[in-house]
Design a protein that fits this description.
The structure holds two protein chains of two kinds. Chain A is mainly alpha-helical. Chain A has a domain of 37 residues. Chain A has two helices and no strands. Chain A is rod-shaped. Chain B contains seven helices and no strands. In chain B, helix 3 runs parallel beside helix 6. Chain B is globular. Classes of the chains: A mainly alpha, B mainly alpha. At the A-B interface, helix 2 of A face helix 1, helix 2, helix 3 and helix 7 of B.
């Protein structure tokens, strides 16, 4: 990354460059934090779906056992 | 349903943002007065425009909710406002950085553009406690819609009031006097505006998809009569 910045003479990082970099980094960080929060939410949904799937399978198995036992 | 077309939209957003950033740093010329710090302008101004338009769109969805009674429109309104508040945070921070670089101060209280945006932002920051203070979901959606419409109407009024204010310390993008932006800068700016606008649309769709999935899981849980999970989410409203 530093090598890339060093090879970009169009970016006057010594002058107002730190402010420009700061503004764009803030934007990037906000987006990344938002995506991370959304990823955590999606993980929770996935976990809940897994729980529901195993719950449904367990209930189906119980019903099958009841039918097998002639209840 | 909400996730349909999310992948091409995301790809288009990333591509447009990449092209926009390339234009900012490798195509748009340096501005003679402000120099390199003017590059913040290509991020800060589109973010501000998209955030304000998003607040108005939230109000329009709220009108659709009150007219139809369909909770889907309330979810659209909520997500639009939510996303615009996030963009608003970015506007305030990037604006402060610009102010520090350009004026030597992080914040200037006698500049109408800054203060008016802060007022709009703080007004929408009260949307969350206002919304979550109401337990009944129907009333919550109805009152939140009234808030979104009132606040949404305030946004263009506020914008016009600022434009009519005398202080012109804050740079104008489309100035009617002194010629406005040169072609290459205008093209870059419009590209960045389109990219940030598309980013807003993509993130709104992303959030609606997540809310829809969450709503479907809750419906499935109710249908299966399954025990509720340990933690209850206060994310409102649900989309089914």
């Amino acid at each position: 990354m530093l090598a890339l910045l060093a090879s970009a003479p169009a970016l006057p990082l010594g002058e107002g460059g730190k402010y420009v970099a700061g503004a764009y980094i803030v934007f990037l960080v906000l987006i990344v934090v938002y995506v991370a929060i959304m990823a955590a939410k999606l993980q929770r949904i996935e976990k809940e779906l897994g729980e529901l799937a195993s719950f449904a399978e367990q209930r189906k198995g119980e019903e099958r056992d009841k039918v097998g036992a002639g209840v | 349903m909400y996730g349909k077309g999310l992948r091409p939209l995301s790809i288009a957003t990333v591509a447009l943002l990449a092209v926009g950033l390339s234009l900012v740093f490798f195509y748009a010329p340096l501005e003679t007065d402000q120099g390199f710090i003017q590059k913040i302008f290509y991020l800060h101004v589109p973010l501000a425009i998209v955030a304000l338009v998003g607040f108005v769109i939230g109000g329009l969805f709220a009108i659709a909710h009150l007219r139809s009674g369909n909770r889907k429109w309330d979810a659209y309104s909520y997500v639009s406002i939510h996303m615009s508040v996030i963009f608003g945070v970015a506007v305030l921070i990037t604006g402060s950085i610009w102010a520090k670089a350009s004026w030597g101060h992080w914040w200037v209280w006698d500049e109408p553009t800054l203060v008016s945006f802060l007022i709009v932002f703080l007004m929408y920051a009260t949307y969350y406690p206002f919304r979550y203070a109401i337990e009944d979901p129907e009333r919550q959606a109805r009152y939140a819609s009234v808030f979104a419409i009132t606040a949404g109407a305030f946004v263009p009024l506020n914008f016009m009031a600022v434009r009519m204010a005398q202080s012109l310390v804050h740079p104008r993008v489309f100035a009617t006097a002194n010629g406005g932006l040169p072609g290459s800068m205008l093209l870059t700016f419009l590209f960045c505006l389109a990219a940030i606008g598309l980013l807003w649309v993509t993130l709104v769709k992303f959030e609606l998809t997540a809310k829809s999935a969450s709503g479907q899981v809750k419906r499935l849980r109710r249908a299966l009569d399954a025990p509720a999970p340990g933690t209850s989410s206060r994310i409102a409203p649900e989309v089914s």
